[in-house]
Amino acid sequence: MEQYIIEGGTPLVGEVVIGGAKNAALGILAAAIMTDGQCMIDNMPNVRDTNVLLQAMEGIGARVVRKGDNEVLISGKCIDSSGELLVDNEYIRKIRASYYLIGALLGKYKKAKAALPGGCDIGSRPIDQHIKGFRALGADVRIEHGMIMAEAEELRGSHIYLDVVSVGATINIMMAASLAIGNTIIENAAKEPHIVDVANFLNSMGANIKGAGTDVIRIKGVEKFHDTEYSIIPDQIEAGTFMMAAAATRGDVLIRNVIPKHLEAISAKLNEIGAVVEEWDDAVRVAATRRLKHTQIKTLPYPGFPTDMQPQIAVTLGLSKGTSIITESIFENRFRYVDEMRRMGANIKVVDGNTAIISGVERYTGATVETPDLRAGAALVIAGLAAEGYTTVNNIGYIQRGYERFDEKLRGLGGMIEKVDSEREANKYIYKTGTVD
Ligand code: UD1
Predict the structure, then answer these.
(1) Does the Cβ of 195 fall within 6 Å of ligand 1?
(2) What is the 3-state secondary structure (H, E, C) of 193-214?
(3) How far does residue 290's CA lie from ligand 1's centre (Å)?
(4) What number is the average pLDDT over the span 48-60?
(5) Ligand 1 centroid, distance to 61 Cα (angstroms)
(6) What percent of the chain stands above pLDDT 90?
(7) Catalytically annotated residue among 120, 147, 185, 361
(8) Please, what is the Cα angle at 194 between 79 and 189, to 5 degrees?
């Protein structure tokens, strides 16, 4: 099984270029089947999650033509809508966000069927708000034998209040409503940058969506969509991960191709704990020459501190002076990396399941650790880069779900990290880098 082997202790220095946003891409790729025209999508992150979604789309008959690593042409014209439009369980199991195909298919063909996604590595993840939205638009939604079936004679615009701020529900409802008859208002909508990006993409195909990025989204249904060309926004979380890697290793990194506004919550916290953060139009620089300080963080929907950055900042705070407190308010099972961090010498205690109390230590020491989920995996890699000695990170398939060429980008910053797929290769790497007898 593939693993990363890391020799820590080298501050990361240099420049890194951020790719397209995975979470925007998942919504946009799914929405692309809603036109019979052609969508040319650029700046697509070439990661496992987007690749699985593209396979799921091909599975329902969409045409997907890869043009190099980060560009793809999609057409929904060949989808045969006479059948049941089933999104195969295999894909839903691999990637929850294939449920965006439900909103896309329901909007376009007024029917969709998919396996109901279960819980996942970061907690139980209900989709009741998605279903509430589809029903409000007039769809008959049934759950039988582990499948979700949505169907409508026609979809009609509606006034929908989301009981919880949900990225997925906002995107799914926005897609279905944009081809409904009449007007829809989504209140208490999520405001993440990728909501705005999916709305912009839909608008580029002819949708009429206003207010994305605020908590009230207004959609005027249109009859059909047309061709488009679109470039996906940069990935806020990939950028944030490199910002934390710079801070935790006491390095100096210029992170290019970012939208600094999307990084404000992360930049503000780094500033607060004593890191240098400089911003340009499309780049941020993060540097840390001294030991950083402690702080308190609560994860919140955008523009609050992102839950997807929680493990990475925990690793940084684990090396900072004093006691930091992190409260996770979005997902219930997002501290599974803490046990792994302890093996590297971190002093972190989780209380009540949702609060981590972190007493900063002077240094981590390398160990063999297991990746519990995508972002925690990236955090463990950062810990390994900051630690003394060698760290082996197992289960890196999780990390590859969301980070393109992660090890290569880190090596470009001087990080001593290698992807290996056997113990023999790992030993070879250690022998080659040569600091162990
Ligand atoms: C998306 C992101 C994920 C990020 C999360 C929060 C994608 C593909 N994934 O996930 O990386 O961590 O936003 O920023 O974009 N909830 C309900 N009922 C619902 C839907 C959600 O109770 O119908 C709850 C969830 O359990 C969770 C909270 O709402 O506690 C937020 O979830 P949501 O914003 O929907 O997350 P995802 O879209 O799954």
Answers:
(1) no
(2) HHHHHHHHHHHHCCCEEECECE
(3) 36
(4) 94
(5) 28
(6) 87
(7) 120
(8) 95
